[in-house]
């Protein structure tokens, strides 16, 4: 059976770091590796429709609800992509290595395996398809390389706090949602920034390249919702790099998913979330557009996981930063 060791060196953030340590980690990161819901007819989807007939809407057909555009769940293992994975004997998954409590490496954990909420889900998918949660190989993927990694076949899937969007449906397929969040502002406690509002005028904002936050900032400044004087030019490969820049005083605030921002605030007691979430977003597992059978198989895993292991994983990893009530973060079934 495939060992749990990473094929590449994963480095993470474990605990509250000082500014100096954060800078060192940022350098190390740069050197690293490259809701489920029932099926549309109301059944659990264990049988599933013909895989060759399954389709997924493109962005122009999205209707503003990309989270509803996935394929029906199916427990069938006979599709070409699932069979390829079974012959190989392991699942190849792109993950984060520096998102505290989502996908990171805790230096105090023996063996150096990645851990977190996303890692739990990846292991559950491996367990359901291959019979073991250890039958998975993790690859550290920067935010802006998530889609290229899937499209090139470098990984079978990306489980990395990736928001389902209409535009991304043109490039990859998504599973049904496995988490609900929204964009928020992270800034020093001493800052006069009050949220995603006019208090950002003249401020320097950091976001991750290729993220929904970066796209939202650009769109809102163009439309006038964001003050024209807001500097949104600072983008980074990995979200944690924004926290480092905030600590160094190179930017005034960070815009990212509230779930990630809460984890970053847990790492640094001098920063806090400012204002309420100003979007509603859904995380999904990203896969190649040709892997229709794998998308349906993952959706069936999510049907069962949301009913069983999802809550325990939330309690273990996310309740310390998001609170014990998981209702707002659990995707609705439909």
Sum this structure up briefly.
Helix content is 31%, strand content 16%. It has 334 residues and is an alpha/beta fold.
Could you walk me through the main structural features you see in this protein, from its secondary elements to its overall organization?
With 334 residues, the protein is α/β, with parallel strands linked by helices. 31% of the residues lie in helices and 16% in strands. The chain has helices at residues 19-30, 80-88, 117-130, 146-152, 212-223, 239-248, 258-267, 292-307, 309-317, 319-322; strands at 91-95, 98-99, 103-104, 136-140, 157-158, 173-174, 179-181, 183-188, 204-208, 231-236, 253-257, 271-274, 281-283, 286-287. The strands form 4 sheets. The protein has a 5-stranded mixed beta sheet with strand order 4-1-5-14-6, sandwiched between helices. Strands 10-9-11-8-12 form a 5-stranded mixed beta sheet, with helices on both faces. A hairpin with a 3-residue loop joins strand 2 (98-99) and strand 3. The longest helix is centred in the C-terminal third of the chain and has 16 residues, at 292-307. The protein is globular.
């Amino acid at each position: 059976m495939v060992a749990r060791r990473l094929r590449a060196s994963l480095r993470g953030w474990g605990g509250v770091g000082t500014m100096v340590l954060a800078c060192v980690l940022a350098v190390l990161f740069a050197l690293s590796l490259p809701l489920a819901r029932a099926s549309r007819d109301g059944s659990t989807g264990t049988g599933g429709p013909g895989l060759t007939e399954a389709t997924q809407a493109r962005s122009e057909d999205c209707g503003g609800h990309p989270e509803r555009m996935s394929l029906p769940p199916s427990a069938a293992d006979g599709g070409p992509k699932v069979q390829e994975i079974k012959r190989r004997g392991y699942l190849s998954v792109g993950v984060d290595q520096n998102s505290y409590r989502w996908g990171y490496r805790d230096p105090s954990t023996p063996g150096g395996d990645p851990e977190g909420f996303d890692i739990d889900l990846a292991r559950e998918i491996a367990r359901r398809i291959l019979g073991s949660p250890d039958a998975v190989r993790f690859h550290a993927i920067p935010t802006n390389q998530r889609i290229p990694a899937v499209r090139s076949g470098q990984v079978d899937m990306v489980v990395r706090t990736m928001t389902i969007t209409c535009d991304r449906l043109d490039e990859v397929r998504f599973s049904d949602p496995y988490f609900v969040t929204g964009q928020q502002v992270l800034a020093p406690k001493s800052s006069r920034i009050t949220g995603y509002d006019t208090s950002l005028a003249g401020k320097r904002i950091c976001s991750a390249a290729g993220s929904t936050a970066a796209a939202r900032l650009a769109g809102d400044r163009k439309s006038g919702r964001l003050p024209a004087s807001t500097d949104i030019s600072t983008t980074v490969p990995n979200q944690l790099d924004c926290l480092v820049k905030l600590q160094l005083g190179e930017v005034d605030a960070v815009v990212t998913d509230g779930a990630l921002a809460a984890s970053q605030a847990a790492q640094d007691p001098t920063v806090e979330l400012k204002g309420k979430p100003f979007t509603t977003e859904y995380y999904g597992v990203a896969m190649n557009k040709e892997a229709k059978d794998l998308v349906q198989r993952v959706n069936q895993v999510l049907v069962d996981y949301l009913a069983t292991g999802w809550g325990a994983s939330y309690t273990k990893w996310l309740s310390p930063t998001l609170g014990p009530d998981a209702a707002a973060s659990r995707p609705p079934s439909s």
